[in-house]
Amino acid sequence: MGCKRFFILVFLFLLDIRVSAQQPGIDSASVPQKDLIDIVLKLFKAEKAKENREKRKVLFSIIPLASVSGGGRQVVVSSVNAAFFLGPPTTTNISTVNFVPYTNFADRLGFIITPNIWLDENKWNLTGEFRIANNIVDTYGLGANSSKDSLVEINYQYIRVYLNANRKVVGPFYLGLGYKLDYFYNVKEISPTIDSSFFSKYGIGTGPQTTSTGITLNFLFDNRRNSINPSQGFYSSLFFRFNPKFLANDYEWSSIYFDTRKYFSLSDKRHSVLGIWALYWGSFGDVPFVNLPGTKLDLGQRSARGYDLARYMGKQMLYGEMEYRFDITRDGLFGATVFANAQSYTEPASNKFEYIKPAAGIGLRIKFNKRSNTNVTLDFAIGKNSFNWYLNLGEFF
Q1: What radius of gyration, in Å, describes the C-alpha atoms of the chain?
Q2: Helix, coil or strand: residue 200
Q3: What are 355-375's pLDDT values in tens digits?
Q4: Residue 266 located in a structural domain
């Protein structure tokens, strides 16, 4: 109950700040916006650098140290975001490339690169994910009612190559194709707590190595102008993935990934946004254990703040999240968020969604780069018998 009271008190404090900041007669849109780069340049009196900043075509946001708690294994990372335009800013969305190396100086080590590229006048959208990792993951069985008593630690090395090319059909609607490679090797069960664990009983993709090579059919609708920190708009993507035998797959399986997000701007004077996120991820056939849907196993690993990586897993996943984002200061330097999410997975016996695992939290924001609208984020989230915190770069969705 202590954590719950803490969140309630902080929420009321942030709400009071929010109400106080919106003083009658003050138009925040007329206040010059400020970010951390402005503060650093002013501190060092770097007027020349300030002039050059406005001319730069690639907008970098960097934090040398970020962290995320999870599974008793705190992961230390740095985070780099590069934003740029490949066409006129009036007709072309901003492109981004995120680079996140991470380690806990023990059993987790890797890096992730996620590009989201918009070509001239948004005629093409090119996305992907490239990952190399050595991970040790705590897993607890399938379904949304698994017990921590069934803990199994899985150690593996991992290479992921995802590529998508989507062509504009009409307006913000796109069709495309993709290629997906997941190669897990040196997979081993570290410390099962029972003689015959659920991992060994699952029996698909539980050997030393598993290769899954797939092709995807993509449907995309995206009218957001800035995917780093959307202020309004609608995003919906639907991926059908096929992993046929003729592509040298160890197992034949398929999946559906349906991701939808809507952003409502609640003020024309300051940043005040309600974001809603819904996700369905279903897998079918002989799905390797390491390819199953799970907590923070989604694209970008952004789901379910409040829970550890792979805390819940299943053949099908339903996920929903709502977040309110707002400025605390009129210059946009400081902001805050409140959010809630819920996840559910099909149970192995019934193949039905029977349990829901909710979480909720609060977050603080500091504007790092006002030109790309990139924030440094600090979030605290509590789930059922779980508490996590996250320091990172960029919004979660």
Answers
A1: 22
A2: helix
A3: 999 999 999 999 999 989 999
A4: yes
DSSP assigned state of 355: -
Q: Please, what sign has the CA dihedral across residues 76, 193, 212, 261?
A: negative
Q: Tell me how many helices (H) and strands (E) the chain has.
A: 4, 16
Q: For residue 15, what is the enclosing H or E element?
A: helix 2-21
**Sole residue written with tokens 């008593």:** 149
What is the pTM (predicted TM-score) of this model?
A: 0.88
Phi, psi dihedral angles at 327 (to 5 degrees): -80, 140
146 CB contacts (<8 Å, ≥6 apart)?
Answer: 140, 312, 313
Domain extent, residue 286, equals 29-393
- Dihedral class, residue 325 (left if φ above 0, else alpha if ψ from -120 to 50, else beta): beta
pLDDT digits (tens, 9 = 90+) for 209-235: 999 999 999 999 999 999 999 999 999
Q: Is residue 18 part of a domain?
A: no
**14 lies in some domain:** no
Contact 317/258 with Cβ under 8 angstroms? no
Check: CB of residue 110 under 8 Å from CB of residue 126. Answer: no
Cα–Cα distances in Å, from 40 out to 35, 43, 142, 332?
9, 5, 49, 16
Q: SS3 helix, strand, coil % of the chain, rounded to 5? A: 15, 50, 35
Q: Name beta bridge partners: 165.
A: 126, 177
Which CATH number belongs to the domain containing residue 259 in this structure?
2.40.160.50
Torsional class of 202: left (φ above 0), alpha (ψ -120 to 50), beta (otherwise) = alpha
Q: Domain count of the chain?
A: 1
- Please report, as a single letter, which amino acid is at residue 145: N
